[in-house]
Specification:
Helices cover 36% and strands 21% of the residues. It has helices spanning 50-68, 110-128, 138-147, 151-156, 165-173, 183-186, 201-207, 229-232, 244-251, 310-318, 327-334, 372-398, 415-425, 437-450, 456-460, 475-494, and strands spanning 6-12, 16-22, 28-35, 47-48, 75-82, 88-91, 101-102, 160-163, 180-182, 192-193, 198-199, 216-218, 221-226, 237-243, 260-264, 268-275, 286-289, 299-305, 342-344, 362-364, 405-408, 429-431, 467-469. The structure holds adenosine-5'-diphosphate.
Length: 495
């Protein structure tokens, strides 16, 4: 019997679900993608319907299999990667969610987190490596237990389960057989001690969350169990679960201390592998865990920008001044410079390095001569400036100068953006041939676990160089633009 040669990667993202089938060369055999509804019940709140999440996942799995013309026997393993922090609570017996998924972007617990920041910052940072914020899962779980009728009692009786999206997916795909997560997802809940690698009793008490709600935590590349036969037609092992950003870090093969990447998705996420050392941040970054196949996971330093590619969605769907994300590139190129305009897209506050939940967006520098092109360009440039602020924070914390940055994500296909990023950072950027590094990372982890690849070296031999962007901006112009950005940030934070 020949060994199955493909990995099915399920990438459950913030705005869409994707299924990608990779071959042994790490190339895409087939892909399917489905966007799903974003629910905004009130200002600053963001939810997803759990049925939409599952429905879109099942649909893309089926579509990718049909397109690839494969049968379940061809799939060596399934890998799962997911939007992180997004919180689901469901009934252990029926599988029915008690509330919608509360999305990472949701600010509903921001006021409570302000108190936490005052009283418990030290404790939470020491244990979890995180800055208390509504972004992480803990206060979202607490909100569900406090606000859904009867939820706390049911949870205390052991009747409810909590999961980030990876856990929910594996539970659903196995029809309730798998109740597990991995280190990278657990590390984002604000309930997991990243030093002892255990759920933290003191934090569970602080948030009033019963231990019985929590899944088992494993390395990202593990034998989690098998899919129910109804999913693919026959049971297939699930051999990885990994948070999207750590998946991308692995997908870029940033497996050594000092390796780093930036992903341009809905948000932007700069992650650096720091190996065995948990580097403490003095500059607003968080310390978290990376993907591993066995033993202790590596530590990772991370800076996140809440609104990255999402600013382009806002230009398209909110302002309606572009008709597609792709159009932003041509429009930005049409104007000669930003015309003095800066957009600070602090729609849900500012993330690293500012952590200002109260900040709201601004457009500054508008004159009678400001055109649609200027606003679009300023929107794209805002992505690069925010990333530059995080890069600077990381250089300070890690005590190194970043000399090369691996990039990926949906918005990384915008070459205006990447060139501007390289100019503003004064640093070369490298975009791999396969920019689906999130799905690829989950596939690598699953493939290594199941033995499709012997080791990382075998994977490395399959990687082809992508495109490099090198800085091409006079120093004086860079300084002028960066000081304009700093001024715009100051104005945003005063409001
Ligand atoms: P996620 O996994 O967070 O859902 P993706 O990696 O799929 O995100 O990237 C989607 C984001 O990329 C969207 O916010 C979208 O606006 C942005 N995007 C897509 N194409 C472009 C483009 N050509 N230029 C700029 N942004 C883009």
């Amino acid at each position: 019997m020949t060994m199955s040669k493909y990995i099915l990667s399920v990438d459950q993202g913030t705005t869409s679900s994707r299924a990608i089938i990779f071959n042994k060369r790490g190339r895409i055999k087939s892909m399917a993608q489905r966007e799903f509804k974003q629910i905004y019940p009130q200002a600053g709140w963001v939810e997803h319907s759990p049925q939409d999440i599952m429905g879109s996942v099942m649909a893309v799995i089926a579509e990718a299999m049909v397109r690839a013309e494969l049968s379940p026997e061809d799939i060596a393993a399934v890998g799962v990667t997911n939007q992180r922090e997004t919180t689901l609570v469901w009934d252990k017996r029926t599988g029915k969610p008690v509330y919608n998924a509360i999305v990472w972007q949701c600010r509903r617990t921001a006021d409570y987190c302000e108190q936490l920041k005052k009283n418990c910052s030290g404790l939470i940072y020491e244990k979890t490596g995180l800055i208390p914020d509504a972004y992480f899962s803990a206060t979202k779980i607490k909100w569900i237990l406090d606000n859904v009728a009867g939820a706390r009692e049911r949870a205390q009786e052991g009747g409810l389960l909590f999961g980030t999206v990876d856990t929910f997916l594996m539970w659903q795909l196995s029809k309730g057989k798998i109740f597990a997560t991995d280190y990278t997802n657990a590390a984002r809940t604000m309930l997991f001690n990243i030093h002892t690698l255990e759920w933290d009793e003191e934090l569970l008490k602080l948030f009033g969350i019963p231990r019985s709600m929590l899944p088992e935590v494993k390395p990202s590349g593990s034998n989690f169990g098998v899919t129910h036969k109804s999913v693919l037609g026959a049971p297939v092992p699930i051999c990885s679960a990994v948070g999207d950003q750590q998946a991308a870090l692995f997908g870029q093969l940033c497996t050594q201390a000092g390796d780093l990447k930036n992903t341009y998705g809905t948000g932007c996420f700069l992650l650096m592998n720091t190996g065995e050392k948990a580097v403490k941040s003095n500059n607003g970054l968080v310390t978290t865990l990376g993907a591993t196949l066995y033993g202790k996971p590596p530590y990772v330093l991370e800076g996140s920008v809440f609104v990255g590619g999402a600013v382009v969605q806002w230009l398209r769907d909110g302002l309606k001044i572009i008709s597609s994300a792709d159009e932003s590139e041509a429009l930005a190129r049409k104007v000669d410079g930003n015309g003095g305009v800066y957009v600070v897209p602090a729609f849900t506050g500012l993330g690293a390095p500012w952590w200002d939940g109260a900040a709201r967006g601004t457009i500054t520098g508008i004159t009678r001569g400001t055109s649609r092109g200027h606003i679009v360009r300023a929107g794209l440039e805002s992505i690069a400036y925010q990333v530059a602020d995080v890069v600077q924070a990381m250089e300070k914390d890690a005590g190194i100068k970043i000399t090369r940055l691996a990039v990926d994500g949906g918005a990384s296909k915008n070459e205006f953006l990447l060139q501007f990023q390289s100019d503003i950072l004064n640093c070369p950027l490298v975009r791999p041939e396969v920019v689906e590094t999130t799905a690829l990372g989950a596939a690598y982890l699953a493939g290594l676990t199941v033995g499709l690849w012997k080791n990382e070296d075998e994977i490395k031999s399959t990687v082809r160089e992508g495109r490099e962007f090198t800085p091409d901006m006079p120093e004086e112009e860079r300084r002028r633009l960066l000081s304009g950005w700093k001024r715009a940030i100051r104005q945003t934070r005063i409001l």
